[in-house]
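Weekly structure sync, notes
Attendees: PL (lead), two postdocs, one rotation student
Agenda item 3: pending single-chain targets
PL asked that the sequence for the first pending target be pasted directly into the notes so everyone works from the same version. It is reproduced below exactly as submitted, 147 residues in total.
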Amino acid sequence: MEAPQEKLKITRTLRASRQRVFRAWTEPELMMRWFVEGDADMTRCDIDLREGGTYRLEGLVGDKRWTIWGSYLEVRPPERLVYTWTWKHDAGLGESEGDTLVTVEFRDRGSATELVLTHERFASIQARDEHTQGWNSCLDRFERVVA
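Predicted structure, written out during the meeting:
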């Protein structure tokens, strides 16, 4: 049984169609507009959106580099994505201790979409909490991109 600290779950209701929300999550041009927090910048966004495909995101926080990469395990447009997530940060945030797992569900709610993000398999409570803060910051930007 997994320990509670290994998992975070965030739910947001967005005023946009499920197709629009899914596209913003998976198209590099749109993703580069929201997938950063604070004063960070994304400098690279490569996405091979298919089961077995990979992605690689890179950017800067000040003069410190961050990189996130993984593989898509499940791709069901516009309903669900499941992918591995490995990270390395020079910005004092450390490095993952192996793959974590991200599941994003896009639920149709009429003229809105309920987004349910689950990120699990963290090595520590600290890593989970840092990612909770990061995801919430990114999702605040995401809401503006899909609005």
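Discussion points:
- The radius of gyration is 15 Å.
- Residues 77 and 119 are 19 Å apart (CA to CA).
Action: rotation student to compare against the earlier draft before next sync.
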